[in-house]
Amino acid sequence: MKITIAKTAGFCMGVRRAVEMALDAPGIHAKPIYTLGPLIHNPQVLSLFEEKGIRVINDIPEKGEGTVIIRAHGVPPERKEALKAAGFNVIDATCPRVIRVQTIIRVHARKGYDVIILGDENHPEVIGLLGHTTPGKGHVAANLAQLREIPAFDKAIIVAQTTQNTLAYEQIKDWAGTHHPQYKIFETICGSTEKRQGEVRSLAQNMDAVVVVGGKSSGNTRRLSEIVRQAGKPAFHIETEADLASVAIGTPQNVGLTAGASTPNWIIRRVYRALEKIPLEHDNPLNRWTFSLQRFLLLTNLYVAFGAGCLSYTCLQLQNNHNPFPLIWISILYVLSMHILNHLTGKAEDRYNDPERAAFYEKNKPYLTTLAIVAGAAGLVAAFFTGTFPFIALIIMSAFGLSYNLRIFPRGEKENKRYSRLRDISGSKTILIALAWGTVTALLPGLADPHGFSSRSLLVFAWSTAVVFSRTAFFDILDMQGDRIVGKETIAILLGEKRSIRLLKAISIGMVVLSAGASAAQIVPSLGYALILCPVFIYGILFIHENGYMLPGTRMEFLAETVFVVSGLTTLIWSTVI
C-alpha cells in the first residue's frame, strides 16, 4: 500500500498561532488561564490544554481573575468587552484571516450595508462575524438555496466563512453577480483553505481512498471528507489512529492522507505509523519481519548505537588509528547507554512524538534500565583499559549525559529559576548530543594516542560533530510540535523549520568542503573524498522531507539513522580497495 500525504495537512497559520499563544500563556500571563470556548476544534489538543491547566469557559462571570484567550475563530465584540469588564486579562488569538473579514464587515456595516455571510450559522466564526454587523442587517446562508431566500437589498456585501467550500462560494459569486450586481463580493476564504481543498481534490482523483484526520466537530475537516466523496472515492474521517480499527479501510493500493487545519502533526504521524502497518497484516512474512526488526532496532536504540560504532570506525580511519576495535566498542556502549537512559527519564515528548516508543519504554523499563547500566559500565571499563585520559573523559561525558533530564534545583524552586535542568537550556539537546558523539568518536582516539592531539583530530571532531548535529537537528524538525508542547526549546523551535533546514543544508555543504579540503591538503587520507557521500545523503533526506515524499515514521527514522552506517560502509569499502 502506497501512502501519499497531502503537503497541506495539519495546522494552518491561524491555528498554529493560537496554540502557541496558549502554550506560552502560563509562563507569561496571570493565572488561571482560560479559553473562551474551545480554542480550536480538536479534542486531543483541548485535552492537552486541560493537562496544562488551561480550562474552557463558555459563560463570562461578572467578576473574574486571570487570563482568557479568545479562540482562533474570534468572538463578537461585546463578548471581548465583557471579559475586560469582568477583570480578565484578555489575549486575542483570533486568526488574522478572520480579523480581516471582521474588519471588512465592520467598515461596511458603518456605511449602512447589509452583510451576507456564507457559512454555518452555528459555527463560532460565523457567530463572531455576525457580532460585527449592524443589528438586523446580518444574514447567514449555508448554500445557494438559502441565499435565494434572503430578500434583495439596495446595498450589501457577501463574505464567506474562511473555511468554506471554495467551489460552493464560486457558485454563489456567479449567481450574485448575475442577479444582484449591486452587491460587493469579497474573497474571504483563507488561502490555506483553498490550497488544502484543491490538494485533496487532486489527491482523491489519484487515490483509491483518502483518510482525513481531524476533530469530528471541525467544519473544515468535514468539508475535506465531503470533497473526497464528491470525487467518488471513499473518505475515512478519523480523529486518531485508534479510529482506524473501527473503519473498513481494507487494503487499497493507494491511500491519501490529509488532515484538517486544527490537527496537530503528532496525531498525523500516529495515523501514518498505523497505516504503515496495515499492509503488513496481508504481506509476506519476510516484509513483516523486516519492518518489525527495523522498529525493534529503533525502539531499543541498538541501531543508533551500531551507527555510533560505524561513525567511530570512520573517524579512526581518518586518523590512521590501527587499533580501532576498543574505541569502537566504547562509542557503541556509551551511545546505547545514554540514549536509553535519556529516553527513560524524558518520556514526556515521546508521548506526542512517538507514543509507541513511550509505551515500549514503560513496558520494558526494568530490562532497558539494566541494559543501559550494563552498557555504560562496560564502556567505562573499556575506556579504563584504553587509557587514563579516555577514562576520565568518558566519566565526565557520562555524568553530563545522566544529568541532562534530571532536575538540578529542587522542584519547589523551579518557578524562581528558569533553568532547573540542562535540558531547559535552549537548543542544548542538539548541541550536547553532537558534542558528546564528536568527543567519543573523534577525540577519544586523540586522548588515547601517546603522541597527543593533532590538527587532524580536531578536523575529524568537527566533521563527526557536524554529521551528528545534522541528524539530531533533523529529528528536532520532525518533533517540533511534540517538543513545543512539553516546553522543550530545540534548535528547530528557536529557528523555525525553514531556517533550520537552510542551516542543515549549509552544514552539509560545509561538510563537503571540509572533507574534500582536508583530503586535498593531505591532513586526512583520501577517504575524505569518499565521505562526501555522507552530506549528500543528509541533503537527500532533507529533500525528501521538504517535498513530502515520506512522512515521519519507521522508514523515515531508519533512513535518517542510516547516515552513520553509510559512513561506516564507505570507510570499509575504501579501506578494502585502497
Structurally, the number of domains stands at 4
Low-confidence stretches: 411-417
Oligomer: single chain
What share of residues are in beta strands? Answer: 5-15%
Structural class: alpha/beta
CATH architecture classification name of the largest domain? Orthogonal Bundle
**Can you list the strand order of the major beta sheet?**
1-12-10-11
CATH class of the largest domain: Mainly Alpha
Number of strands: 12
The gyration radius over C-alpha positions equals 28 Å
For the residues shown, what is the average pLDDT? 88
Percent helix range: 55-70%
Predict the CATH topology of the largest domain: Farnesyl Diphosphate Synthase
Principal-axes geometry comes out as elongated
Distance between the termini: 43 Å
Largest sheet: 4 strands, parallel
Tally of individual helices? 25
Describe the model.
- With 578 residues, this protein is an alpha/beta fold.
- The chain has 4 domains: 11-94, Rossmann fold; 98-189, 3-Layer(aba) Sandwich (Cobalt-precorrin-4 Transmethylase, domain 1), CATH 3.40.1010; 193-282, 4-hydroxy-3-methylbut-2-enyl diphosphate reductase, catalytic domain (Cobalt-precorrin-4 Transmethylase, domain 1); 291-407 and 419-577, Farnesyl Diphosphate Synthase (Orthogonal Bundle).
- It has helices at 13-28, 43-51, 77-85, 96-110, 124-130, 144-149, 166-179, 191-206, 219-230, 265-277, 285-299, 302-318, 325-345, 350-353, 355-363, 365-386, 388-403, 428-448, 455-478, 480-485, 491-495, 497-520, 527-530, 533-546, 554-577, and strands at residues 2-5, 33-36, 54-57, 67-70, 89-92, 114-118, 138-141, 156-160, 184-185, 209-213, 235-238, 254-259.
- α3 (77-85) links the parallel β4 (67-70) and β5.
- The longest helix is centred in the C-terminal third of the chain and has 24 residues, at 455-478.
- The chain is elongated.
